[in-house]
Amino acid sequence: MTTFQPKSVVILGALSGVARYIADGFAREGFAVALAGRDLEEMELLAADLRERHEVTCCCLKFDALDIDSHASFVQETTEALGALPGGVVACFGYMADQTEAQRDFALIRKTLDTNLTGAISILERFAAAFEERQSGFMAALSSVAGDRGRKANYFYGAAKAGLSAYLQGLRNRLHASGVKVTTIKPGFMDTPMTYGMDLPGALVAAPQSAAQAMTRAILKGKNVVYVPFFWRYIMWIIRSIPEWQFKKMSI
Amino acid sequence: MTLPTAQTPIAGWGRYNPVVCSCVRPERSNALAAFLETNGEPLVARGLGRSYGDASVNQEGLVVDFTRMNRIRAFDPETGVLECEGGVSLADILTVFVPRGFFLPVTPGTKYVTVAGAIANDVHGKNHHCDGSFAQFVDSIELWTPARGVLTCSPTENADIFWATAGGVGLTGVILTARLRLLSIDSAYVRVDYQRCANLDATLDAMAASDQYYRYSVAWVDCLAQNASLGRSVLMRGNHTLANTLPESKASTPYRLPRRPGLTIPVDFPGCVLNHYSVKAFNTLFYAKNRDARDVVVDYDKYFYPLDGIHQWNRMYGRKGFIQYQATFPLESREGLVKLLERLAGSGRASFLAVLKCFGAASPGLLSHPMPGYTLTLDIPNGLGLTAFVASLDRLLLEYGGRLYLAKDALARPEAIEAMYPNLKTFREIRAKLDPNRLLASNLSRRLRLDG
User: In the predicted model, is pLDDT for residue B350 greater than 80?
Assistant: First the structure.
């Protein structure tokens, strides 16, 4: 495993379904953790939990992916809270609107793109600049298998995540020279509030605890692109291989 | 505020009679609070679903899954007091605090239960004869109630509500957080004495004579043995071990457990796997293989949670499921216990080893199960005539002044429970004030008419 200095991480969107367990995974490895999100009160509960369980430093920061203007000062705020520029950043926030509602309401499409793509690029660019200058660090973001191929069931979300995946690819290419690792995480279905109650094939739905464990491991190993659970790599390979003339007639 | 709903077939751990329920699973405190404030449907809180019957099943309303409300709030190493949300599991507590020298003050035979579930069923463990039950180690709880909002309850504040909640199977409110006194330990190991007893009298006499020397005491009974061997058992009694008395290989890391692979039962066994002959062979072998031994050093996981090593062991009983029957007889009713064992052995209903324990003093919990006496616990697979057979056991139990355990029960009649729990009247009065519109309900509460 690569060693990162300092041993600290910022989790953006710390209250999203799987983020809590990613934060837990880093804390277990002895990382100081900065939780960032919109609801400070709720994050404090999580911070107390991480401190008691793992005896690590843990602090909370206000962060809103849609509030682009606030991103300029966020790296500085994180640095002050942790006492040094963090070792790495993991972007876990995301937003998925109901597809049919979004087709009727452009505001929802816009929020989907602004959160998953524009907001992510905005904040990650800030960290990228700081890490590039320091010549070390790790960056990871939760993209999605939905970005691997556009489907009628959720193509706004898919378009945003496809954009994010392409962005991360380019970023990885750029930061390679400075030794900064960039990990694209493509989760399949996870048992989180986003999917709770949906009619999904049970065997394909991963527990967020084990999914987060795989993600944390991939980030710490400095992997490039990781599907979680691993078998989604093969599922998506098959889905991508279907010719377009056939795919356009399908409902999957 | 509404939370996403899932329609899921659920049952107790016995997988007896699953039904489709509307479930919600809050993950944030503010979302939970908003939900509780506006919800108008009868609900029951569910943790890890280890109660065997229908205590955490609710067909007419909602089941609220609390497994994600599981954050630790604070821990004071000076006093050993842990404050946590109700959905924290005992397994979590062990993982975090055994390495720091603390153990659960009371633990049931599985660590996969939540703190709130342990309070709501006032669970007991192998140390009941000297320490009492789980709720007796709870300093206070935050309880959401339909009529009065969030209340702090403890043995000194809102004491009547506290003792109605301990063992109250979720019908007084929703346990949001709890403060629990952990037990300081010097190592993760227990020093166990194994002793075979040829029949029931020998077992009970041994317990009476020397349980006082052990913090933990339990007997595994072969309840298929008959006649002179009726109630033959292996007594397993132990105490926590001091680190400096551990063998050298363990003394330097006294809180570390040996690694062992977990097993999983991936599919339902066919119903015929566990039959009278296979179980009888197992029980006979178990009794024959065990030898008397003293001072055996066993790690806590192996001693307290032998079945937790096999994930989803409840699938062994096949698709139809099983019930767990736990009956407690008062000390003076040894005869009742003998009759119960005779009836079980004669019935040919296969059951793995049953567990026998001698209880100590009762807790003040109004519906807490333990009372001074003998408690026998066994699994009975679902099969033809199960209801009638269990009803006959219930009658026998009533005749001898015994009682059933709500956390296990799936089949009892309301009249029986009313006769077994004289405090039920007081419980109903307290409950009526906290929940006048009956927003807390479960299949168990309706079946047993716990509301009156």
Answer: no
Q: Give the up-direction half-sphere exposure of residue A241: CA atoms within 13 A in the CB hemisphere.
A: 6
Neighboring chain A residues of B4 at a CB cutoff of 8 Å:
193, 196-197
Distance of CA B126 to the CA centre of its chain: 11
Picking from B6-20, B24-38, B173-187, B347-361, which range would have the lowest pLDDT averaged per residue? B347-361
Between 3.40.462, 3.20.20, 2.60.40, 3.40.1350, what CATH number should domain B189-412 receive? 3.40.462
Whole-angstrom distance, CA of residue B377 vs CA of residue B125: 12
**ipTM score of complex:** 0.92
Q: Which residues, in sequence order, are CB contacts of B243 under 8 Å at separation 6+?
A: B186, B187, B251, B254
Q: What is the 3-state secondary structure (H, E, C) of B230-265?
A: CCCEEEEEEEECCHHHCCHHHHCCCCCCCCCCCEEC
- Which residue numbers in chain A have pLDDT < 70? 1-4
Please answer yes or no on whether A197 and B4 come within 8 Å at the CB atom.
Answer: yes
CB contact under 8 A, A45 and B73: yes
Superfamily of domain A8-247: NAD(P)-binding Rossmann-like Domain (3.40.50.720)
Report pLDDT for B348. Answer: 79
Each domain of chain B, given as residue ranges in start order, spans 72-185, 189-412
CATH number of B72-185: 3.30.465.10
pLDDT category at B62 given cuts 50, 70, 90 is very high
Domain boundaries, chain A: 8-247
Rounded to the nearest integer, the mean pLDDT of chain B is 93
pLDDT band at B309 (very low <50, low <70, confident <90, very high): confident
Chain B residues whose C-beta is within 8 A of a chain A C-beta are: 4-7, 25, 27-30, 71-75, 96
